[in-house]
Amino acid sequence: MGWEWNHGTLPYLYVSEWTSRGVETGFSSRHGGVSTGAYASLNLGLHVGDTPETVLENRGRWLARFGADWQGVAVGEQVHGSHVLWVENSDGGRGARSLDTALPQVDGLLTQSGLGLMAFFADCVPIFFYHPRLEAVGLAHAGWKGTVGKIVLRMLEALAERGGRPEEAWVALGPSIGACCYEVDEPLAERFRVDFEETPFLTPTCQGHYRLDLGQANQIMLRTAGVPEEQIAVAGQCSACHPDRFFSHRRDGIPTGRMAGWIRHRGKGES
Ligand SMILES: [Zn+2]
What we know:
- This protein is of the alpha+beta class.
- It has a single domain, classed as CNF1/YfiH-like putative cysteine hydrolases, CATH 3.60.140.
- Helices cover 22% and strands 25% of the residues.
- Strands 1-2-3-15-7-4 form a six-stranded mixed beta sheet.
- β12 and β13 form a beta hairpin.
- The site of zinc ion has 6 residues, from loops.
């Protein structure tokens, strides 16, 4: 099970095995939009200084790729926290066209509705959830703060609230910054040591510095919580290593653009 490219004028990665189960997934590249300069060309983030009209044109193209409209999507504010939220049909359109209407203070969304969930990334780990029996899908945003805050466990707890077991969950990690390009200092490494029994995702480099593998840290939490390894798909593509494909906050600094993650349960039809 893995991620594959869907090529075309607006290329994106998707989890092919979920498609046949009625779950649409997407992780955009930087290509196919109308933004210029550091945002070229498919910047989908409204919060990074790009012209709003340009971002909305890009978002319109992205949604059109999936045949979705503005009311058929919900977006969270993304504050590098670990709060998650069940999204209902009445939330359709939240955050789609403006930051003001985004679902406040959340970095993880789940839904049993037919709404699409969308979140934005440039290095942070996009984590897609699919729970077949609940017919639920989810999308979480996990940078180092969301990882140390264990947002993936909050997602599994939210599924449990509705009767879903971790053993039944399918999870896919999209492109994010790899250990190859993510060096952190001692105080940050210590944050992880305090909250994790073991930290194989921290590799010492020179004195007081470590390579941090955020994807591995999240995978360990998922597996320990009971998600079977064979139900976890990992894109394994480093956002910083591929300037031709992805924006990277660590590599490009400010300003740079954002890719979008998208997930929708097609079995539910359009809302
Ligand atoms: Zn890299």
